[in-house]
Design brief:
Blueprint: H1 3-17, H2 21-24, H3 26-37, E1 48-52, H4 58-66, E2 71-76, H5 79-85, E3 91-94, E4 107-113, H6 121-131, E5 132-143, H7 149-155, H8 170-179, E6 183-196, H9 199-208, H10 225-236, E7 244-256
Parallel strand pairs: 1-2, 1-4, 2-3, 4-5
Antiparallel strand pairs: 5-7, 6-7
Length: 257
Amino acid sequence: MPLSSLKQRVRDAFDRAAATYDGAAVVQRRVCDRLQEALTWTTDSPQRILDAGCGTGYGARLLRARWPRAQIAGVDFAPAMVAAARTTFDCCQAADIEKLPFAPATFDLWWSSLSIQWCHADVVFLEAARVLRPGGQIAFSTLCPDTFAELRAAFAGIDQHRHTLPFNEPDRLHTALDGAGLHDIRLIRERHTIYYPDLKSLLRSIKEIGAQNVGEGSRQGMMGRAAWRKVEAAYEQFRTPAGLPASYDVLLGYAQK
C-alpha cells in the first residue's frame, strides 16, 4: 500500500477514536507516566517543549505539572485529536511528526509517547534532531515486537492476514537515533499488561484508542462466525484469574543532541 494511503488510514482511525480515546487509554497513560518518571533533567528547566503525536494531551499535562513555566507546543496527525487537546497547549496544530512545521533549534525537549510506531523512525528522529536546540533532549516511548503476542498467537492459522503492526526492535531504534546524530542514548524495555473479561472487550478497547491494525495485509471484510469461534478458543488459553491479557512490549527512549 502506498505510504500516503497508509497515513490516511492512520489519521482516519485516530480521528474516529478521539471521542473514546481517554476512556480506553489505560496502558497509554501508564506508559506516559513511566516516560515522565524516567526522564532525567540536570540542566535548567526546559523553556520550550514539543509533544509530537500529542493525542488528547495527557503527556502535556504531565509535563506542565513538572515544568509549569515551560511553553508547550503539540502536534498530532489527526485533526480531531488536536481539537480535543488544543486547550492543553500554548499552541497545537495538525501536523505530521515526520515533517514538523517548526524552525530548526526551536525546542529544548522533544517528547513523543506511543506515536513513532506509526512512522519511519529514521525520519522522525532526524526531524526531532532538527528542531532541537544544541543540548536539547528527546524522550519517547514506542512498542516493540512482542506487543499483542497473545493476539498474534490466537489468529495464527486462522487466516493469512497480519493482525498487528511490525513493531521495531530496540537495536533498530538505537541505530536510528545514532544516525540522527543523537548521543547519550538510553533505552528501557518494559512489559505492560492489561486484562479484559473477553476477547470482544479487548478488541473494542484497541479500536477505541484508534490502534486497530491499519497496515498492509489487514482484513478488509468481516470474519466468519466459525473462524471467530476458533480465535476466541485460541485466546482462552491465555486467560488468567485477572482475565484475558493484552501485552504491550514497551520501549522508553532518551537521547541528547
